[in-house]
Amino acid sequence: MAKVELTVNGRRVSGDVEDRTLLVQFLRENLNLTGTHVGCDTSQCGACVVHIDGKAVKSCTMLAAQASGSEIKTIEGLAAGGALHPVQEAFKAHHGLQCGFCTPGMIMAATAMIEEHGGQLDEATVRAELEGNICRCTGYHNIVKAILAAAEQMNGAAKVAAE
Ligand code: FES
Ligand code: FES
Predict the structure, then answer these.
(1) What are the pLDDT digits (tens) for 75-84?
(2) For site-directed labelling of 53, which of 24, 36, 60, 147 has its Cα 20 to 30 A away?
(3) Quick check: pTM over 0.90?
């Protein structure tokens, strides 16, 4: 057994798990944070992406015990004060989802991407960085549009705040 201690969406959590428990299992089964999805068993789909210490990571590729001590953010931690995150709003406004299964992973990948690239994010970069996230429904076009729109909005807001 392994002891896992994490900060998840700002809350300190801990648990004793079998050594083989994946981070995604710990989030879904121990913490009931089922917004993080499992879409494959080959680490290809990206439905399980969360932020670990600010970086987008497929939570099926890591043991819960390996993540111990980290700060994790899941899709449940993105909206603040009852308002959707700008990336969530943009997916809604630009029809970036259909069945929604890939959406939590897409949105977590997108938010990390926007934070990393700031105002430099362009379509080619979005498409290249979404390589690890599979969507069976949308054809990706509206997802890319949504991410670029959110990036523009977030960078505009950051610029205004800095002025
Ligand atoms: Fe498919 Fe993690 S569940 S990449
Ligand atoms: Fe259905 Fe992406 S919206 S898999």
Answers:
(1) 999 999 999 9
(2) 147
(3) yes
